[in-house]
Design brief:
Layout lengths: L10 H30 L2 H9 L2 H32 E2 L3 H7 L8 H12 L4 H10 L14 H26 L2 H9 L4 H30 L2 H6 L4 H11 L3 H27 L15 E2 L2 H31 L8 H34 L3 H11 L6 H27 L11 H24 L4 H9 L4 H12 L1 H17 L2 H6 L7 H10 L3 H36 L9
Parallel strand pairs: 1-2
Helix pairs in contact: 1-12, 1-14, 1-15, 1-16, 3-7, 3-9, 3-13, 4-13, 5-7, 5-13, 5-23, 7-9, 8-9, 9-12, 11-12, 12-16, 13-23, 14-15, 14-17, 14-20, 16-17, 17-20, 18-19, 20-23, 22-23
Length: 563
């Protein structure tokens, strides 16, 4: 049944459509501002960047993206295939535990592993004590390197690939897999020739999401001293006070991010295949002997290195620190973090509801474009959004201050640039796509007949949203608010650049202490951030358990031959 637009024409509906356009314009503003600032800057700045740091930033960023892409593909795909297709000891526990590393920000992982693997860390100190070697008597991999940063990012980002690959493997019918087996393929051969190609679009989407998070990362690469576009933007803006260079670097990073976003959307659009005939649940293959323990090892290691060891290391560091979470200073950090996260979550969910409802109730080119622009934010790194908002709003504040001085001899100062509201706006742009995704997932279950019934009963668009959509979408909207809340708690580059004076958060405090090599102190706010990050992971785990129960109901008691 084709969805019929609700009645339009009154001022309330026009006002709602106008608000949607304004939200989209605000989301587009940082990208346009970065483009204009980069174009209007002196070309000598770009030439200087090209002669000095641009090749290094480009090469390092590309190397990091390729390394993280390969690592997340390997770990996420293999783990997803094993938990879906194989039966081995601890599979049910590992199936949900493999999602837990998603709760840790990469920069928190970097602090933990520096404490473990750096020269004065636990591993090397124990090695020297046992062998009697001196500092120059052995070689040990350097954790503060591109490889170390890639390892941290892989450990926290592989769940993107794991979740999408797992869903793709579950949705496949067993008929195609067993057709390959009947033609003489081994389970491994059937995986390579049938299952993996069918899941390729979903896996590619997960890898590209991990790649976009990689180029947006600032905390990890900054702490490890790895020079990427993200660190270059921050250095140019603050250390060198060169806003033209920061804008041009931001434009380069923006172009890279939008290219990845286009690839991700294309891969999702290509995620269509036909299994033909009756869909049959995929049975699990019992593993025996060495294969059984190999599967246990391959699924346990990502959880061990991505969650268990960092949590133990951070806890040990926190107990040895002098940081007091109950002190007045830390209560201020927590209050600031919660304030920003709560306001940003509420405004972002409201914006997502407006954009989604307008596109559903008044489908036209303006509302469709507004929704599309709202989705672009997830592809724009926080540092780019920060630069893109500070440039125009700083110009506005300075112009207003100059006019007020000249006209009324009153200085207005920085009304918007130094406020938390502009920072909250940056959060909204950055995480609006996540809220839109949660909204669309919930609204898909609300059939068009409900909208038509509301229309027959005389409700306007606003009335239908208030009386029908919102009550039905409360679980989805709550999930969206929780995801945005946790993402804001973890966000570092935009907060560092845009926060008001003397308004620090837990993420900023962790970064500051780590930058001063006070890792024990940095562990305290890091543990709080990671603990809060477990909230959406718990929601994902509940969804995984429901999927597993549904799958067992589809194919009860079925199993393949031992492998």
């Amino acid at each position: 049944m084709r969805e019929t637009p609700l009645r339009q024409g009154n001022s309330g509906e026009r006002g709602l459509s106008g608000i949607a356009v304004l939200i989209a314009a605000f989301c587009l503003l940082p990208m346009v501002a970065v483009l204009m600032a980069a174009i209007s800057a002196d070309s000598s700045t770009l030439a200087h960047l090209a002669d000095t740091v641009l090749p290094r930033y480009t090469a390092t960023t590309l190397l990091l993206v390729l390394s993280v892409g390969a690592g997340t593909f390997l770990i996420g795909t293999v783990a997803a295939w094993l938990v879906v297709m194989a039966e081995f000891p601890g599979r049910r526990v590992l199936e949900v535990a493999l999602v837990i590393p998603l709760a840790f920000p990469a920069y928190v992982m970097a602090y933990a592993y520096t404490h473990i693997l750096d020269h004065p860390g636990i591993v090397q100190a124990t090695l020297r004590d046992v062998t009697g070697w001196g500092p120059r008597d052995y070689w040990f991999p350097e954790i503060r390197s591109v490889g170390g940063a890639a390892m941290m990012l892989v450990l926290v980002l592989y769940p993107y690939v794991y979740l999408l690959a797992r869903a793709a493997f579950i949705s496949q019918s067993a008929t195609t897999f067993f057709a390959a087996r009947s033609l003489g393929r081994s389970p491994r051969g059937a995986f390579w020739s049938v299952s993996l190609p069918m899941a390729r679009p979903a896996i590619a989407a997960g890898v590209l999401l991990a790649a976009m998070e990689t180029i947006a990362d600032f905390g990890t690469v900054s702490y490890f001293g790895v020079q990427t576009f993200a660190t270059g933007i921050y250095t140019s803006w603050f250390s060198m006070a060169d806003r033209a260079a920061a804008a041009q670097l931001a434009l380069g990073l923006l172009a890279f991010a939008l290219l990845l976003a286009m690839l991700e959307r294309t891969s999702r659009g290509a995620a269509k295949y036909h299994t033909g005939g009756r869909k049959e649940g995929m049975p699990r293959i019992p593993l025996v002997g060495k294969m059984k323990w190999l599967a246990v090892t391959m699924c346990t290691l990502p959880v061990l290195f991505g969650a268990v060891l960092p949590a133990i290391a951070l806890s040990a560091m926190a107990f040895g620190s002098e940081q007091d979470l109950l002190s007045r200073r830390y209560i201020g950090f927590i209050r600031n973090s919660l304030t920003l996260a709560c306001i940003a979550a509420i405004l972002t969910v409201l914006a997502a509801t407006v954009l989604g409802s307008c596109n559903r109730a008044m489908p036209r080119s303006s509302t469709r474009w507004a929704l599309y622009i709202g989705r672009l934010g997830y592809a724009v790194p926080g540092g780019v959004i920060a630069v893109g908002l500070l440039v125009p709003f700083a110009a506005f504040d300075n112009a207003l201050d100059a006019w007020m001085r000249a006209t009324f001899d009153i200085s207005t100062g920085l009304l918007l640039t130094g406020s938390i509201w502009l920072l909250v706006g940056a959060y909204m742009i950055r995480f609006l796509a996540a809220a839109i995704g949660a909204y669309e997932g919930g609204i898909a279950s609300v059939g068009p007949n409900m909208d038509a019934a509301a229309r027959v009963l005389g409700n306007s668009v606003l009335g239908t949203i208030r009386k029908v959509h919102v009550p039905l979408l409360r679980p989805s909207l709550f999930t969206a608010a929780l995801i945005v809340f946790v993402d804001v708690m973890k966000e570092l580059p935009a907060t560092l650049i845009m926060r008001p004076f003397n308004f620090d958060t837990l993420a900023v405090q962790a970064h500051r202490l780590a930058a001063d090599e006070r890792l024990e102190g940095a562990a305290v706010p890091s543990l709080v951030i990671a603990g809060i990050g477990l909230l959406p992971v718990i929601l994902l785990i509940r969804g995984i358990r429901r999927d597993a129960a549904d799958r067992r109901a589809v194919a009860p008691g079925r199993s393949g031959r031992p492998a």
